[in-house]
Design goal:
Length: about 350
C-alpha cells in the first residue's frame, strides 16, 4: 500500500511539533482519508467490558484532546480512540514550546499540562460524532483529568463522569500525567482508594445503571515495586474495571542527547517501551489477570504490540509511534499481529495475552 505519510513527513517534521499537530488535526477534520489500511479479522476482534473492539490497536490520549477527530481516527483503521484528557473548564496549559521530538531516538518529550477547550466543547464534539449519519466502527474512550487550580481532584473527576460518562464507551481516570502539579500523588494507596470510591458512586447515580461505562485508571511507569503492589491491592477492591499502562516517564535514559534530555516533562516513544512493558507484566501478575490492561508506551510496530499483549495487555495504544510512522501504522500493526499469531499457531489474539507471564510460551 502506498504510504502517503512518506511524502508528508518531511513537511510535518519541518514544523514546530505543536504546530504540526494542529495542522494534522485540521487536515483530519477537513480532508477525508482513504481507508485502504483497515484490516478486518475475527481473529483480532475482542469483547471486553461488554464492548466489541474490532481490533486491538487504538490511539492513546493526548492526540485528540477535544474529541475533534474521533471519526477520522477510527477511519484510519484503529479499533478504538481515546479522546482527552479533558478537564471541566477550558485551560491553556503550560507556556510553549512544550512538545519536543528526537527523531533519531524515536522519542518525544511533552509538558503540555492538559491544554483543552473544556467539557462543554468536548461534549458537543462527541455528540456530533455519535449522531453522525455514517459512523465508523470502533470504540470511543474518554480520558478525564482535573483543572490545574482544583484543590479537590475528586470534584473535577465526578463532574466529568456526570457530564461525559453517559457519552463514553469507557472512561479513563488520568492520575499519571507528570505535567499537572500534585496529580501523580493520587496514585498513593489511601488517596487512590478514596478517589475511586467517590467516582464509582458518581457513576452509579449519573450513568445508565444497566450499562455503565467501564472505569479505567491510567498509571505512570515510574512506580516502585512497593507502590505497584499497594495500587494493585486497591484496584482489586472492585472499584475499577481496567488499567491503562502507562503514561509518559520522568526518567531520562543516558542514551538520549543532552539537549533533549534536559527538557522538562514526560518522555514517550521508543525509550519508554521496555519500562512500560515491565509494568504491564508486573500488574498482570499482581492482579492475576483479573483486570483488562491497555498497554501503551513506545509501541510503533506489530512486534512491539505483540510484546505488550504477551506481557498481559488485552489492547494496545500508540501516540509517539503515530507521529513517526503516520496513519498507516494501524493497518500495518494489525496485519503484522496476524502474521505473528500465525507464526505461533494462535487462532485468536486473546490467546497471546499474558503468554510471557504465565510461561506458556
Ligand atoms: C504530546 C503528548 C500529549 C499527551 N497528552 C496526554 C493526555 O492529555 N492524557 C494522557 O493520559 N496521556 C497523554 N499523553 C501520553 C500518551 O497517551 C501515552 O501514554 C504516552 O505517550 C506513551 O505512549 P507512546 O510512547 O506511544 O507515545 C501524551 C503524550 C504526548 C506525546
Amino acid at each position: 500500500m502506498l504510504n502517503l505519510y512518506q511524502f508528508a513527513r518531511p513537511l510535518v517534521f519541518s514544523m514546530d511539533p505543536e504546530q504540526a499537530h494542529q495542522v494534522t488535526l485540521k487536515a483530519l477534520r477537513t480532508v477525508p482519508l482513504p481507508t485502504c489500511g483497515v484490516t478486518r479479522s475475527e481473529k483480532l476482534t475482542q469483547d471486553l467490558w461488554g464492548l466489541r473492539f474490532p481490533n486491538p490497536v487504538g490511539v492513546a490520549a493526548g492526540f485528540d484532546k477535544n474529541a475533534e477527530v474521533v471519526g477520522p481516527v477510527l477511519r484510519m483503521g484503529f479499533g478504538f480512540a481515546e479522546a482527552g484528557t479533558v478537564t471541566p473548564n477550558p485551560q491553556d496549559g503550560n507556556p510553549r514550546p512544550r512538545i519536543f521530538r528526537e527523531p533519531s531516538s524515536r522519542a518525544v518529550i511533552n509538558r503540555m499540562g492538559f491544554p483543552n477547550k473544556g467539557a462543554l466543547v468536548f461534549r458537543e464534539n462527541i455528540e456530533k460524532f455519535r449522531h453522525a449519519l455514517t459512523r465508523p466502527e470502533g470504540i470511543v474512550g474518554i480520558n478525564i483529568g482535573m483543572n490545574k487550580d482544583q484543590v479537590d481532584p475528586a470534584h473535577d473527576y465526578c463532574a466529568l463522569i456526570r457530564s461525559l460518562g453517559p457519552l463514553a464507551d469507557y472512561l479513563v481516570v488520568n492520575i499519571s500525567s507528570p505535567n499537572t502539579p500534585g496529580l501523580r500523588d493520587l496514585q498513593h494507596k489511601d488517596a487512590l482508594a478514596a478517589l475511586l470510591e467517590r467516582m464509582r458512586k458518581e457513576r452509579e447515580v449519573s450513568c445508565d445503571a444497566d450499562n455503565p461505562p467501564p472505569l479505567l485508571i491510567k498509571l505512570a511507569p515510574d512506580l516502585s515495586e512497593e507502590q505497584q503492589a499497594d495500587i494493585a491491592e486497591v484496584l482489586l477492591g472492585g472499584n475499577v474495571d481496567g488499567i491503562v499502562l502507562t503514561n509518559t516517564t520522568l526518567e531520562r535514559p543516558e542514551s538520549l542527547p543532552e539537549r533533549f534530555r534536559s527538557e522538562k516533562g514526560g518522555l514517550s516513544g521508543a525509550p519508554l517501551k521496555d519500562k512500560s512493558t515491565a509494568i504491564i507484566r508486573s500488574f498482570y501478575r499482581l492482579t492475576k489477570g483479573k483486570l483488562p490492561i491497555i498497554g501503551v508506551g513506545g509501541v510503533s510496530c506489530a512486534a512491539d504490540a505483540y510484546e505488550k499483549i504477551r506481557a498481559g495487555a488485552s489492547l494496545v495504544q500508540v501516540y509517539s509511534g503515530l507521529i513517526y510512522e503516520g496513519p498507516a501504522i494501524a493497518g500495518a500493526m494489525n496485519r503484522g499481529l496476524l502474521e505473528l499469531m500465525a507464526r505461533d499457531g494462535l487462532d485468536h489474539i486473546s490467546q497471546a495475552k499474558g503468554l510471557d507471564v504465565s510461561g506458556k510460551a
